[in-house]
Amino acid sequence: MSRFLALGVLALSGCASGGVITTGQDFTMRVGQHVSLADASTLGYAGIANDSRCPPDVQCIRAGDADVLFDYSPRGGAATRITLNTERLRTTRIGPWQLRLIDIAQGDAPRATVRVDSGNLEAAP
């Protein structure tokens, strides 16, 4: 019986795509990854949209920008889509947290580096 329980735990752990993140520290997420916050809410990285950023090794007149999509779910609540932008809106409040976009990589499924802080922080550009 314990063998089946151990296999079930292993199978479930394979479904988890994140873990509990530490607030106040930068961390990088893959598209489709979800992480838990200290209050049992979750943050998922859905990907990017409207990406007009200048590709690497190309000289552009304008750097461009991209919308970075997240899904925030409070504990026991429905998910809300959050859109940050690499130029215009890099920080927003999600529940009791402040979500800040630090960096977004280039490519088909770019990784996003973000930070989640707690408390009453001022919004940054």
Topology:
Blueprint: H1 2-15, E1 26-29, E2 34-36, E3 42-49, E4 67-73, E5 80-85, E6 91-94, E7 97-104, E8 112-118
What count of helical segments does DSSP give? 1
What is the level 1 CATH name?
Answer: Mainly Beta
Outline, from the CA principal axes? elongated
Overall mean pLDDT:
82
Strand line-up of the largest beta sheet: 1-8-7-6
* CATH-defined fold name: Tick-borne Encephalitis virus Glycoprotein, domain 1
Major sheet details:
4 strands, antiparallel
Query: Based on the structure given, which CATH architecture is correct?
Result: Sandwich
Q: How many extended strands?
A: 8
| Rg from Cα | 17 Å
User: What's the N-to-C terminus distance?
Assistant: 55 Å
Number of domains: 1
Output the helix-strand order: HEEEEEEEE
- Poorly predicted residue ranges: 1-16
Strand content: 35-45%
Structural class, by secondary structure, is mainly beta
Helical residue percent band: 10-25%
**What is the H level of CATH, i.e. the homologous superfamily?**
DU1608 C-terminal domain
